[in-house]
Amino acid sequence: MESNLKPSSETEDAPIAELREASKHYGAVVAADGLNLSIRRGEFLSFLGPSGCGKTTALRMLAGFEAPTSGDILLDGQRVNEVPPHRRPVNMVFQHYALFPHLTVAQNIAYGLRQRRPRPAEGEIARAVDRALETVRLPGFGPRRIWEMSGGQQQRVALARAIINQPKLLLLDEPMAALDKKLRRDMQIELQTLQRSLGITFILVTHDQEEALSMSDRVCIMRSGRIVQMGSPRKLYDRPASRYVADFVGKSNFFSGRVTAVEAGRTELAAAGGHLIAGGAPVEIAMGQTASASLRPEQIALHRKGAGGNTLPVTVINRIFLGEHTEYLVRNTDLGEFLVLVSRQAEAIEGEFEPGDQALASWQDGAALILGDD
Fold first, then answer.
1. What whole-number distance in Å separates Cα of residue 22 and Cα of residue 307?
2. Does the domain formed by 251-372 have CATH 2.60.200.20?
3. In terms of CATH, what superfamily is 17-238?
4. Which among 16, 93, 189, 198 would be 20 to 30 A from 157, CA to CA?
5. Would you say the C-alpha torsion 171, 174, 178, 183 has a positive or negative sign?
6. Distance between CA atoms of residues 344 and 315, nearest Å
7. Using one digit for the tens of pLDDT, what is the confidence trace for 61-117?
């Protein structure tokens, strides 16, 4: 639809959109609390968090479906708090696609163009629809009815309808939640490819950490209406700033204790049973402070005989075969249960472990992250 925003005089380095101290209250309920975010042109950004964390509220404020209670929303440097959705250079793909069942695929895709004033000529609309269908790899599907399409095909139709207007922002509200795992992965790859080819800024809302990490240039981790950490998927995985982020981004084992030593680049924690676990601390932690050591399952190895580094005797409780890896649940008398992820290559050397087997769990010194309690 036609935007009433003036062309921006900003440079290409200027953000395409911004949230400035944007808050949204529903009575006493705070859905978004002082959000500050600068969104880059052409990036794939994700809001990640559990239900009720504020990620969909942030998306809806960008789209114009919600007005901030306080703060500002900017698109291309212009404040748009009072600009309605159909006047913003933004399109949104919803979780349930919101397609019109009584219209054909082509009519669904062309709907936005037909609402423009002045309306494009029919020939121009038809050519735009054909190009959009080619882009989402559905050439020739224009005459079909929506109910004749599979879930994955319907999602592509919703995408085609969104991109035909050439928006500056494409907002995706959990669009793959209804797809099975294999189709969801295929569509994730297609979305990435589509985003790169179009150069449009994509903003995804999801509670699926794997989806956010595999698709995004940057991820905003949200909690209780706030952005608690933002960065590249690798940074969030390798250097989470809190136990909450470490727990939400990937799997991690946590061992609680008290900080007993703080040195440059190394913090030591005394866990249950007097076990000392050392590692880096992304956020400064004081001596004597209660904290948790975070160890990713893939950082831990299982052995039948002694190994270097930190070693604990464990009992294998359960094993799950995952194809490229096997996930073991093990228990140490002092530290309790934790997960170990063993590659097929490592398992070929040590052999498979069965529930009830005794083993040694080990990790390299300094592999852990020492994180303050949330």
1. 52
2. no
3. P-loop containing nucleotide triphosphate hydrolases (3.40.50.300)
4. 16
5. positive
6. 20
7. 999 999 999 999 999 999 999 999 988 999 988 877 788 889 999 999 998 888 888
